[in-house]
Amino acid sequence: MNRYFFYNFMLVSLMNLMLFVPHILVKNRYSGGVSALIAAPVIGAILMYMFTSAMARYPGLGYPEILKKYCPRWLVSLTSVYFAIMWWFSSTIVVVAYAVLINRFFNPDANTTVILIMMVLAAAYAASRSTLTIAFIIEIGIIVNAPIILFIMFKMVRSPQLNFDSIRVIANYVTVMPTVITLAAATLIFTGYIHLALFNRLFPPNFRFKHLYVYPILGFIILLITFFVPIGFHGTEGVDRYIYLWAVTSDSLIMQYGFIERVIFLFLIVFLNLTLVYTMSGWHLGMEYIKSCFKACKPEIDSPKAPKANYIILAVFATATVLYLIFTNEKINYLITSYWLVLRMFTEIVGVLWVFILSRRRLKPE
């Protein structure tokens, strides 16, 4: 079961490329972006150790079920709705950004709204499946796509176009203290562990999380590549000109492998798969949080048939996502995402501390 925890970690780590995280860090490269890279693994590791330690004491239970043991129902319902909105929005900003990206790099004549509708229909249908099915889909998605992304990252690091002088210039700003926005962006890469809030329902009694020390190291390596590779390709000043930084950076690389020449096409196809998996996962978590507010809805990890409530909730999510695209643009989306990243960081800290304190109370003799 440890591998399912790893897959969720990798999913969020790789999807940070689509969440404006590289652009936010690069925009603050002279004002704390570098030091945030060092602070983020420490913060992420502490929160991850606390959260996994707490959730391990409640095998088979999700975050809402744990809160119901100690807190009034109205508070649990309010918290669940808040978390549902957070998860819905985390997936929405990704799928909306990718729909715009397809319009920008693949087919400029295509209607962005039509592209988004096709994507949200596929993601919503997949999200309506059982939690166990979602875990299997994430596993398949990571096994198929992660090696290709890691290969592209490796080729970029080894590329002769990479200018290490630009990287060294920016690295010298490591002494500048990080800001809240840089910490919020950098710590996102370690947020995959928070999926355990509901996927903990799948874990059997006496389960133990193993090799947790690997996650901060792996996340730190991915974070370094995420930040420094675009700087090495575009220079210390030119790197600030792009919003979809990694899409442009991948277009700077050429491979001589038959039908694969422009790496951007391979990059976008792979991230199309991961975007759908990430949206499916986020909407499924949001849906489960909403369902936990109703007494009639009991948590099931492998229901043979999707309840009607699943389709109703996901229809609301999908409709809200399309409306978000219609009433916003790239600049507004970037601004909202920046505020959401800060809100997410503080929400994550409070949520982890909350369940950790509750798990310590459980050890006290009654």
UniProtKB/TrEMBL annotation:
The chain crosses the membrane at residues 6-26, 33-54, 74-101, 110-128, 134-157, 169-193, 213-233, 265-287, 308-327, 339-358. Coiled coil: none annotated. One of its GO terms (biological process) is spore germination. Pfam families: Spore_permease. Keywords: Membrane, Transmembrane, Transmembrane helix. GO terms for cellular component: membrane. InterPro entries: Spore_GerAB (IPR004761). It comes from the Bacteria. This is Uncharacterized protein. It comes from Paenibacillus pinisoli. The lineage of its organism: Bacteria, Bacillati, Bacillota, Bacilli, Bacillales.
